[in-house]
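SUBJECT: A protein chain and its fold
Encoding: whole-number codes for local backbone shapes
RECORD BEGINS BELOW THIS LINE
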Amino acid sequence: MNAIEVKNLYKVFGPRPFAAIDMLARGKSRDDVQRETGALPAVIDVSFTIPAGETFVVMGLSGSGKSTLVRCLNLLHTPTAGSVSVFGSDIRALASKDLRSLRSQRMSMVFQHFGLFPHRTVLQNTEWGLEVRKVPAAQRRESAQRALEIVGLAGWEASYPSELSGGMQQRVGLARALATDADILLMDEAFSALDPLIRAEMQELLIGLQQDLEKTIVFVTHDLNEAMLLGDRIAIMKAGRVVQIGTTEEILQNPADDYVQSFVQNVDRSRVLTARAVMEEPIAKILLREGPQAALRRMREYQTSGLLVVDKHRRLIGTTFDDDVVAAIRHGEHSLDSIVSSDVITVGPDTPLADCLIPSAESRLPLAVVEDGKLLGIIPRVTLLTALASDSSSGNGDHASDAPEAAQPTEVRS
């Protein structure tokens, strides 16, 4: 089920908002609209859908409209036009009581500047959302305690915000959101005020929490590296509009325009792109039950001197090579069992490309991409080097220049 659906959303601040929308629809720029009407279109004709359990990152520079957009999702800003649906309900049509219930029970927000009450202890701050919902004291204390344990703050319940570091304060803010057990977390520049080391810790904490809790998270940031680290998908905004939505791989490989290209040109692709992004269908493979004669025909067909051997469930068994196959045929063998080597080099689908270089150099066959024992795909060395080539040409890495020396073994073509 989709957690959030946004359709043709506009938010215009200032006078004559509908005149501004009409001008935008007729192709006027945001600057022209602001100059002629005095209105500021902050969000312009934005549409997207977020499935339940996804981490959706909204990324853009200051003034791009990203924070305004996320505040429209819970009506902290009332949209000028368009619709926002949460789990199938148009929130603009909700009665005030139902909207309050949505905000307190199904959506929680984590702010950049923590928003903690200085006169309340850590535990009391964490309980606050439940207190607003009039949850009984014992129940809310139990939920708050559990949330503090999740974010690593057990033992700090009686402390006050002034006694905590910035990172610890943000953990309290996150715990407060988690204590309500809301389905959706809205995180507006939640880590931007933290120093780099603490920010990295919070990013890793959020990744770990999401693996366990599978919340729907809308995360706002101006940092592309943070967006790519956290997001299942990323929406890039410019001047109120969403110019591209996609996975990290989609945005890196196919930037929608020059604006997006300018963002991604300095990204170290070897650390961001994964094996899954570049792997190909493994054509040169054979079922274990097929035998040496079938293996030899397959090698001739694909002009290769080696095959990946799999079972009927596509589990990778190992590899076999032409000299062993020919010897087995001469000896009258009808099975591949004795000529399959289980010493095969593999990587997982989420392995960064930088970490595929050495395994690729050491493998006689294209590098096998395996998950839970199953063969997902292969990465020929030329494909790997091609994927990394743009890093070398732009000065972002030296992997491709190192590759000829590292790749001395001759790879069997698949």
Q: What stands out?
A: The radius of gyration is 27 Å. Residues 318 and 346 are 10 Å apart (CA to CA). The chain is about 40% helix and 20% strand. The chain has a mean pLDDT of 89.
